[in-house]
Amino acid sequence: MAKLLTRSKGWIMPVEFGSPFGENEATKEQFGDGVYARTTTSLAVSFETDKEQLELILPEGKGLELRGDPVVSVSANYNVGDLRMWGGRTYEIIMVTFPVTFNGKERQIHGEFAPVIWENLTDPIIAGREGIGWSKVYADIEPLRITRTRAHGVAGWYGYRFMEIALDNMRQLSQEELQSRQQASAGSVSEGSIHWKYIRRTGTTDEADADYLTMSTSRNAPVPDVKNIDVWTGDGTVQFNEGTWRDLPMTIIQAVNGLANLEVKKIVGASLTKTESINSGGMGETIILE
Questions:
Q1: Are 22 and 9 in contact (CB under 8 A)?
Q2: What is the number of other CB atoms lying within 10 angstroms of the CB of residue 172?
Q3: How many CB atoms lie within 10 A of CB 106?
Q4: 278 or 166, which is more confident
């Protein structure tokens, strides 16, 4: 007998076949506690840029303003993602963020604005764009290369390297330095990552089906089960290489070239972080900012 498919919740295209989160709720076998420790690595570099250039990236009329110094952070993250969602597989993420304040109807909210996120797996790109409003796009992200004193990451598209990030003269932080860094991070005023969800209305060029800000928070997020964290610091560099229509597709060329044109006044932070965890915690609630 044919079974009626449910479309009651968790809709994602194609909806004709029902919802993956409908009657077939995720079982404890899939979403229960993990047993295998996984190692993720993050290479991050922050640089100070021109304030007026950075303000041009902010969406107009959305209540966002720069917070503090005009500092852009670029992080290349390897072997990440919730394994339970993607059949036990991982992928890589490159995020660009800078600190902002949202002037809402009821109060100000501090966060990190993320104008673009590159990933090398289509499935989380689709789910992230539709479900939580992240500006995710595709890139070829090469495996992180680490030698004795250098870590080097590359992102590209069909052989065109549009981003390179590196850490030279690496030095591992002591436990005291690591604890001090973690305490400083815990005192951050940021409440989450802020994104501009914009989806064009079909058949138009200047009308939207969705046009609002979202914020992904740590509220009600799963508690991470971290076994070990190691951090290295050193001399960081990050570079975006401007491309033409011969080099890059229309989905990412404007983002690459916009970031390539940002002035790099000075590097203000650089690190390589290796985290071993059974359960990385995952994301909490995502809300619409009004």
A1: yes
A2: 13
A3: 6
A4: 166
Task: Say which residues have a Cβ less than 8 Å from residue 283's Cβ, sequence separation at least 6.
Answer: 132, 216, 218, 221
CB 37 within 8 A of CB 277: yes
Q: Which fold has domain 36-289?
A: Acetoacetate decarboxylase-like (2.40.400)
Two structure tokens written together for 76? 């290349």
Instruction: Summarize pLDDT for 152-192 with one digit per residue, the tens.
Output: 999 999 999 999 999 999 999 998 998 888 888 777 899 99
CA trace torsion 42, 55, 111, 275 (10° rounding): 0
Residues contacting 198, CB < 8 A, separation 6+? 208, 210, 211
- Asked if 48 and 70 count as a contact pair (C-beta separation under 8 A), the reply is yes
> What type of residue sits at position 50?
D
pTM of the complete model = 0.91
Tokens matching residue 137: 């796009």
Q: How many Å apart are CA 255 and CA 260, to the nearest integer?
A: 8
Nearest Cα neighbor of 215 from 123, 95, 133 is: 133
Q: Where are the domains of the chain?
A: 36-289
Q: What are phi and psi of 53, to 5 degrees?
A: -65, -40
